[in-house]
Specification:
Elements (H helix, E strand, L loop, with lengths): L3 E5 L4 H12 L5 E4 L4 H11 L6 E4 L2 E4 L1 H9 L11
Parallel strand pairs: 1-2
Antiparallel strand pairs: 1-3, 3-4
Length: about 80
């Protein structure tokens, strides 16, 4: 099972949807809430060039945001613990 990290903020509707999708697919993830840590957000922007959230990493590699995660799951690039696509 790949390691999934999701950088979020407290009031982000896209973040809620991404977390819900991962939970529905049975894919474990680590949530990193950057709502009150501007230094972490600055580091993230430096790594990805993106300011908005969610920002998603799989096995330490930046894959993008919600659209890229949806596409990865649809293509079978992430598999759940139950083996579902």
């Amino acid at each position: 099972m790949p390691t999934v990290q999701v950088y979020t903020t407290r009031y982000c509707g896209y973040c809620v949807r991404v977390k819900r999708l991962l939970e529905q697919e049975g894919i474990p993830y680590e949530e990193i809430d950057i709502s009150e840590t501007p230094e972490v957000r600055d580091e993230l922007v430096g790594k990805t060039g993106e300011w908005t959230v969610p920002q998603i990493f799989v096995d330490g590699k930046y894959i993008g945001q919600d659209d890229e995660l949806y596409a990865l799951i649809r293509s079978g690039g992430l598999r759940s613990a139950s083996g579902r696509k």
